[in-house]
Amino acid sequence: MAGAKTTKKFRSQEWFDNPDNPGMTALYLERYLNYGLTREELQSGKPLIGIAQTGSDLSPCNRHHIELAKRVREGIVAAGGVAFEFPCHPIQETGKRPTASLDRNLAYLSLVEVLYGYPLDGVVLTIGCDKTTPAMLMAAATVNIPAIALSVGPMLNGWHKGKRTGSGTIVWESRQRLSAGEIDYDEFMDIVASSAPSVGYCNTMGTATTMNSLAEALGMQLPGSAAIPAPYRERGQISYETGKRIVGMVHEDLKPSDIMTREAFENAIVINSAIGGSTNAPIHLNAIARHLGVKLDNDDWQAVGHKIPLLVNLQPAGEYLGEDYHHAGGVPAVAAELLKAGLLPHPAALTVNGRSMGDNCANVENLNPEVIHPVSNPLKESAGFINLKGNLFDSAIMKTSVISPEFRDRYLSNPKDPEAFEGKAMVFDGPEDYHARIDDPALGIDEHTLLFMRGAGAVGYPGGAEVVNMQPPAYLIKKGIHSLPCIGDGRQSGTSGTPSILNASPEAAVGGGLALLKSGDRVRIDLRKGTADILVTDDEIVRRRAELQNNGGYHFPEHQTPWQEIQRGMVDQLSEGMVLKPAVKYQ
Ligand code: FES
Ligand code: MG
């Protein structure tokens, strides 16, 4: 156990050992004895450690944490702590309607109450499926008691007929094959099922692998923890180490605010570019930062991250999957490559093990340069996000690592003759509208059309739907046109390789520029200047805005649950982390 022990009384002793108020102490204490805990355990000044359990039958990506928590508990006890496992609100990315991201802030709120209101001195945050990671880290940021994250680990690689099948990515690919009549429904289902061969989270570089990698890049997980596949023995072993380490962190009073500093966020942005991370990352990291009072916005993502090369060859930007990432060395090997090239901005940033990122990673060997490329031989140069602005929105993110080489040469990286691309807008109001109309030939969608999705942001959907990556109409796919530029105020699954322009803020539902767009408008996007504009006169914009106001604003679907209504009333935009605005002041 690293570091010095403090002599101070832990916060749990205010509940369990307060002789000045024996009545309350007895009330607090007795019920925790009823299943076998002893006064000796609760009153001897041992740290009481929560295990925030995000696994359940409803959350299969994180379900293996039910097993891993046993090893965490053994680690806590071995280091002289007492373990309290408790359930967290389930968030299942693929199973929750209308969208799992609606629940991120709900799980955040609930965990804040638990961490604040119960006698816990530290907490192990069990992370995995997309939104579980930010929800846990946001709550740890707000309450700021010692906290360590534990990834559940990715699933094993999926295989079908000798080819790697990656979570989500195979769905997007196979759906096109189904639309084109190349495979039937049963084969489609078999292919997709092959991508989920074991316990664990998505094995592609989707939002789950991204956020687990970034929790490690931020310093909140033990080195190497993010990438170990869920069923591997090392997963149980690092769970034990994580349990042991949180007890040490409580003795050292090592808190989230000591670790998740501005420097740590800049390291995470750089690592996100190098791994080809999800466009959901800026939403979640901006949110965690806001709950800590660290300044971070989408301009920082471009300024710090855009010039960083893509090193990790995982689907959807590359070929490989989670097991390969782990065998190559995971996050520490990526950090080591960046360190060698002088690209990791803050090697001195502290991590949960009490050592710096640089100390943890500098001597880690990259065991497979085909999976984790060195900076001298990147998969793509300048592969981070760009942040676009204009009369359509104040901020929208584009993931440049998935742009095709031809498109990149023509529109992004040609320094002499930068071209902007222009096209005719086809506007859809939410995913239902898109599905109902996309194949209608009367819309006249062709290869020069830009597809727009609006009404899909934090307020409009609500929670922000992953629907901006829109497949072209089947008649274009049959002609060999597999993608059209997609732009919208919703999100996109991290497992999709579509080079969309996403998370546009402010969204249509709160009167952003997208609400003024009409199908048939010309739109101009200049990636090098970072602009996106409807080509209409300023007078026309004024006229359309007045018309929108006269119509009572942009119409979005009714609330279906109390939480939808509550969140819509206080949620910030995707560019601002989609946080609950009143929650940010509690630091
Ligand atoms: Fe849960 Fe991807 S759906 S990790
Ligand atoms: Mg997703």
UniProtKB/TrEMBL annotation:
It comes from the Bacteria. InterPro entries: Dihydro-acid_dehy_C, DiOHA_6PGluconate_deHydtase_CS, ILV_EDD_C, ILV_EDD_N, IlvD/EDD_N, Sugar_Degrad_Dehydratases. The keyword DNA-binding does not apply. Residues 370-577 form the Dihydroxy-acid/6-phosphogluconate dehydratase C-terminal domain. GO terms for molecular function: hydro-lyase activity; iron-sulfur cluster binding; metal ion binding. The keyword Iron applies. Keywords: Iron, Iron-sulfur, Lyase, Metal-binding. Pfam families: ILV_EDD_C (PF24877), ILVD_EDD_N (PF00920). Residues 46-360 form the Dihydroxy-acid/6-phosphogluconate dehydratase N-terminal domain. Belongs to the IlvD/Edd family. This is Dihydroxy-acid dehydratase family protein. The lineage of its organism: Bacteria, Pseudomonadati, Pseudomonadota, Alphaproteobacteria, Hyphomicrobiales.
